[in-house]
Amino acid sequence: MRRVFDVGERRLDAMMTVIDNAQVHQRHSIFPVEYIVTPRSLEQLSLEYKEHAIRLGCEAAERCLANAGMKPSDIDMIITVSCTGFMIPSLDAHLIELMGFRANVRRLPLTELGCAAGAMALARATEFVRASPGTSALIVAVELPTLTFQRGDLSQANLISSVLFGDGAAAAVVTDRPMAGPRIVSSDTYTFPASLDAMGFDLRDSGFHIVLSKDVPQMIREKIRMLVDAFLQSCGLTREDLSAFLLHPGGSETAVVCGAGARARARRHAVVMGRARRVRQSVERDDSLHPSRLPDYTNDEPRRVRIGRGIRSRIQRGAPAAAVGVMTPAAMILLFVAAQRGLELMYAARNTARLRQRGAVEFGRGHYPVMVVLHAAWLLSIAAGTMRDPIVRLFPLMIFAALQSLRIWVIATLGPFWTTRVLSVPGDPLVRRGPYRYMRHPNYLIVIGEIGALPLVFGQVANALIFSAINLVLIAWRVRIENAALAGRVRTPGSDIA
User: Fold this and answer.
1) How many CB atoms lie within 10 A of CB 266?
2) What percentage of the chain has pLDDT greater than the value 70?
3) Which domains does the chain have, with CATH numbers?
4) Catalytic option among 58, 64, 83, 115
5) Which pTM value belongs to this model?
6) Quick check: is 235 catalytic?
7) Average pLDDT, stretch 133-157?
């Protein structure tokens, strides 16, 4: 704490008291604590939100559909929920592209409803399914509140929000198909009057700043019993008819008091998790709503159901690894390609020197700098594009990986005779093994595929088209040069050398 907040001993003790009283022993985050507390620009925070919201959203949606025995094409409406970041197109648009939902699937992003958004999404999904029999709606909720941490903000609101909120994602399918799971009977909404300043975010140059009034607990305490009773009455129920309450974690003082004589059964399920849980636990525990999973509390006394909040500072460093490294998959792929090309250039330079010693003649020397500039610009342009959209597309990546296997085959076949220049040793026979048994220039077909495939891995269609067009012109030029260089070489049947 002292490393993060520059405060005196008394203030630090007061802050630690808040944390120690939170009663939540663990929460999850997308980054290690050391990185969370590092100041970043709003642009960087937005890029991190986009990358991880899409990643977690896809994972939650895929597991949810698998558990429901459904495919993306079975979904008629997607509702996405998030208030801890902002992006256009919204999360649902990315899910459609990455997971193969139908083009006519209905979309509803809920982005400014805060803590109530998940319940609101369930209500809207239920209304849609009831109005359109035979349909199904998918809800995907992603919240990354650690991205809103403000190191320079010493306010009580910033401290409490840092204690309360953890990163996570979850998904649910609402359908009228016969299926196991809880049934939504009814829903209702109540907006507290004069509560605009109670909770929310202020968006400033440094990112999201939490708005959290100290009056929120009392505001809820004064009305919660009346609201619950009125809602149940509209459904023909009383609190005594309920077997369990599922509560949003809001601290040790959040409570629902069950009436005398109630057979109250409550599952203290999120007591150590903070506000949001990472996607794995949200999905693996999706059966927790079934009554058979709820422990039995039978007591005639009123029961207070408490849900803890926050995280003890001594456990922050040990949060389970929903955390990922700062380097993104896009960066790792590009680093691999750059390193691969660098090693190939070193290998080619060694081979070039040895071939020159054997009397090799270089052809078309003027085209080589153009080729180097093209490939460098291609890789730099892709890297720049990933700053805007770092999402990796699996199918183009598989194609690019297959092309790398073929590239290695070509290099291994030529061995010490492989170079990036056009060199020819007079009198040497032509290569007739490996891929050269089937075509004259397999290496150039591979390069054509690589130039188009790698940009598509990151959704960069324009880069793929532009550099492919330029590359085709350069390849045609180089093939003419190479054919001229090989024209005087001897073709020996069965030759295994170059």
Assistant:
1) 22
2) 72
3) 9-318 (3.40.47.10), 329-486 (1.20.120.1630)
4) 115
5) 0.52
6) no
7) 82
